[in-house]
Amino acid sequence: MSNYNEMWRSLGLNMEAHDRLLQALPPTYHDVYLTQPNRPQGLEYFDFVVNEIHGLRIQELQEHKQNGGKVIGAFCVFVPEEIVRAAGGICIGLCSGIDIGAAEAEKVLPRNICPLIKSFMGFKLAKICPYFESCDMVVGETTCDGKKKAFEILNDYVPVHVMETPQMKRGRDRELWLEEVRDFARLVEETTGNRLTTETLAKSIREVNGKRRALRRLAELRKNDPAPISGLDSLLIEQIAMYDDVERFTGKVNELCDELDKKVQTGEGVFPSGTPRVIVTGTPMAIPNWKVPHLIETSGAVIVAEELCTGLRYFENEVAEDAGAMDAMLENVAARYLGVNCAVFTPNTGRMERLVQLVREYNADGVIHCALSFCDPYAVEANRVEKVLKEENIPLLKIETGYDQEDAGQLKTRIEAFIEMLG
Amino acid sequence: MSNYNEMWRSLGLNMEAHDRLLQALPPTYHDVYLTQPNRPQGLEYFDFVVNEIHGLRIQELQEHKQNGGKVIGAFCVFVPEEIVRAAGGICIGLCSGIDIGAAEAEKVLPRNICPLIKSFMGFKLAKICPYFESCDMVVGETTCDGKKKAFEILNDYVPVHVMETPQMKRGRDRELWLEEVRDFARLVEETTGNRLTTETLAKSIREVNGKRRALRRLAELRKNDPAPISGLDSLLIEQIAMYDDVERFTGKVNELCDELDKKVQTGEGVFPSGTPRVIVTGTPMAIPNWKVPHLIETSGAVIVAEELCTGLRYFENEVAEDAGAMDAMLENVAARYLGVNCAVFTPNTGRMERLVQLVREYNADGVIHCALSFCDPYAVEANRVEKVLKEENIPLLKIETGYDQEDAGQLKTRIEAFIEMLG
């Protein structure tokens, strides 16, 4: 990717640190992804996207900006992509899945904080993320204490707009959230210089729903035994969903699903039929955080669903397409996002119910709960998950881990023991 | 206090564990409190209250309950005491300031969680807190992730009502909070069986304001050099404010202030004039968490104010007494609580402004920021405090610590070096 050097330099990247990152990724990707057995051909596109993660896609963003377009970065599935897109903007998920720039981040953050937060602060402060440096605005939210307070600091380095996500799902919370969505729409109009129209918003809602539908189609295919695609590859696609071009991505996921349809018909899978089936749940796994899924799928199990923000929570609800007026459309957008079973909500009973349902629907043998270190919302909520799954006699393994590899051996031992117990 | 055994047994306390706690407290209290020089006489009452912490006050609660009264427990300055009191209830702050019942708590909570949360869960699960066991209801809030999610678990053991504290202070947040306060008033009416009237609420607002005024009078006296009372003793009084009888407590604080008035006139103080003056800010210090203040005041400084929830945030704002109708009164109550500079709010600029103001008003030489381990709201917000104080050339020491004593030596070294720098 050396031909991007000029672009990266013009973005103000720390070239040396960025080079180190780019050198570290391909061997990891090779070991984790390219050594998997029986990978579908349709993954070539996604391999290509990862290979060009800081190259071609960044170039596209720059071309978009040169044509007057705006780029809006986000860290959370609560930021309504429909609205950004309807105003001609591009919405991208920002880098936060790798231990990088920690020395810089720890100058402004406590040591004992969730690695995802430390990662995004490190990326920004050390100037290693070309997505971050392409953003005209970053949108934060109040889904957890660490992010909420870290956005105040991040705002020293890049303009951050914070959306207040409510903490319950009652009428008053829906009203508050609707006002947040309306404010966001106004802000996006100001930032992009483009007014939202009923036509552009309706189109954008359909397109983003189309992406969600393609991802749901992929998810549905994983209900088969043998599973036609690995959990690792599915997670990768879900991660890419957050920064790739919407229409192109949707098309490629559907093409892949066409291929998987055939595999299902012929009974082909990535692992033998009867392989223990696991659902992963917990904190988001931002790219390139593949640690736990890799350990699981090299320990004799297949992941059949991710009850994660980088997973089902991102695509299982659609925005209703029945509205004709702007107000009603924004209400539909707001309503869709409050359907997400995030641990910001108390209680988050929807998540527990959904998990039990998923275990049945996907014919899973067990659940692995992964919380990032120091993530209070999910680490504490794990107790609720444990309670409900115990009542349903569903085996559960609880893991807390960060982005480093120090505990990989110990985790592998625990995961292998769990899977053996399922088998 | 052996004559309370029957009462404690009837409350279902774990007598053995409770005995161990009762045996541990007096030596600590002696070392930290009773060895202080030049203590005002008016502290005798507060020493007595601490000595009877699980005795006489619990007996009063039991008598109140035998007469049909209700007891409502809380963990946060956001729970409106006025409303509980107006309905004939007693509102008490619950035990959370000591490392106890950790083995029990860690069965339901992650290891790496704020010690205050682990403490209250430990107290409940190990059945060591007679206040907890006296509660008809516990009121939680959504001020931080850890508490918010832990209340879901606590609700398995005692009925918990959670108030949704908003995360900003705009119109929509005020509306949401006002609805929360109205709901709380209705719930308190149901729980106590007593309707709120404009008379009872007005009276209760005046009484709780009276408590706040007495505490403010005490705070004002600490602006003098030499300070007429130690920070440790002031903190103790602020801690006791949360569970003692409102009227009696107010009277005793005012009596103490009469004594301190005279000391100020004669220039008497607890430490010599010119002793470095420090303001403590950060996470609440629940009784008996006196670790850092004790280290500070045995290292050559005097604490002149606590910008804490167990401090100024608890009493510096009053509920306006100008309303005649119930609705307007509840609006005044709601408005008062949103004036608290809690780190739940983003941004929490009011706290930064207030801190700078306090340093001037109290003629402080420096600020010590204490965050409990794993407390994201305050540990991350410490960066904002640092930024503002640096701009104002106000020295700052940042501390993160738990309830154990393991780091006491290291903390003392850091605190001594900081104070030496101030002197």
From TrEMBL, chains A, B:
Keywords: Iron, Iron-sulfur, Metal-binding
Xref: InterPro entries: FldB/FldC_alpha/beta (IPR010327), YjiM-like (IPR047678)
MF term (GO), any: hydro-lyase activity
Gene3D superfamilies membership: 1.20.1270.370, 3.40.50.11890, 3.40.50.11900
Named cofactor requirement(s): [4Fe-4S] cluster
Keyword presence, Plastid: no
NCBIfam families noted in UniProt: double_cubane
Family: Belongs to the FldB/FldC dehydratase alpha/beta subunit family.
UniProt name for this protein: Benzoyl-CoA reductase/2-hydroxyglutaryl-CoA dehydratase subunit, BcrC/BadD/HgdB
Organism: Desulfoscipio geothermicus DSM 3669
The organism's taxonomic lineage, starting at the top: Bacteria, Bacillati, Bacillota, Clostridia, Eubacteriales
